[in-house]
Amino acid sequence: MGLAVAARLMVQRRFAPLMAAQALGAFNDNLFRFALVNLATFQGLTVFGLERELMVPIAATALTLPIFLFSSVAGQVADKYDRVFIMRRTKLIEILLMIAAAIGFFLNSGLLLVIVLFFMGMQSAFFAPARNSALPTLLEGKELVTGNALVSGSLNVAILAGAALAVVFVVREDAAFILSATLVGVAVIGWLIMCLNKPAPADSPDLKISWNIIAQTGKVLGFAFRAPDVLRPLLGAAWFWMLAASVLTLMPLFTAAVLGGDETVGLALTALFTVGAAIGAIMCGVFTRGQDALIFTVIGAFGLVIFPSFVALTTLGWPEPDPDSLTSADVFLADPGNWPILAALALSAVSAGLFVVPLQAMAQRRAKPEVRGRILAAGGIMNAATASLGQFTLFAIALLALPLQAAFGYIAVVSGFAGLFALWRMMRPGRYTE
């Protein structure tokens, strides 16, 4: 049933343009961000002469800060105006931003590129609640899990493609031209595709929008906290984003200090995690039946107990590798002794994909239509907050003098509690069927 629903949605105007446009937007976000980070790390691009070690957190903050600042306003906009109309306008703004980014690349201006990155974060802050609140309008209840699975799967693939091409493009002599042409071209294509989507009318057209960011952020979070049946899946999804940020932050150092691999191994493991999460999401969409999808969250949660625990316990006694003789990806992948670790990391990612998709659909389905945009915007705020916390994983491990494997143990423990809670909710009499 899920496979048939997925095949049908991927060719229909009420969904396919939205999925494609958001994937192209995610590709552009990550191509631009990773190009900026690589130029700062390897080619001396800077802002006000700052060291390269500071450029990475500056880039990360420039992208996530607008989500904190503008999600509350974006949620109101998503409740007042047609959601597809909002997405078309944000895609049009993306074209203008990519033209500005092209100027920044040709001028080699770190300041202009960071400013553009900030406005890209703002554009994403308005696109996300419009997209999330549009899905329950455009899709039937039994299609929500499959639709979210397709969105999540395509998003992960787009993120990986953007990050990988950034590494390839920045080392070319014509890096400024190829980056600019790709970013502007993809933005134009994304806007044209989004123009094909059917409308998704808002449920509160008379809402008066307030631009008091601080007050509205508190109010938007209040909507979520006063709807505990929506808050629970939002918190579960926020845990997923914290997990993803923790793993992606941890992976380079874990690769070198524990697995003895160089940067090519780190890139391979990052790709493995991203593709695995996409596979988990798509599996959830293919195998779900109607609204009965919470079981996939339970399976995913316990997968996140078993496989990260295996990684932690297996590598805990490994000897410390020589930092001057790290293994390349081809040698690392060819060694059968490393395959169990690779399999566990891949299955951890698949479990993460299974875990999050039903929660996204559950929050969309349960949120009241007249406040859906604002409640889902609260989810965006929580996702950004937890992802930011996840980036401090290495700092916390160093502060507590713990081995790197402690991060995987932490993931297993919290996921175990999440799985037990989801299982309890699923088995309660009179529960929701999702």
Automatic annotation (TrEMBL):
A cellular-component GO term for this protein: plasma membrane
Keywords in alphabetical order: Cell membrane, Membrane, Transmembrane, Transmembrane helix, Transport
Subcellular location(s) of the protein: Cell membrane
Protein's UniProt keywords contain Transport: yes
Superkingdom of origin: Bacteria
Signal peptide extent: none
Membrane topology: Multi-pass membrane protein
Gene Ontology terms, MF aspect: transmembrane transporter activity
InterPro entries: MFS, MFS_trans_sf
Cross-referenced PANTHER family: MACROLIDE-EFFLUX PROTEIN (PTHR43266), MAJOR FACILITATOR SUPERFAMILY (MFS) PROFILE DOMAIN-CONTAINING PROTEIN (PTHR43266:SF2)
Protein name: Major facilitator transporter
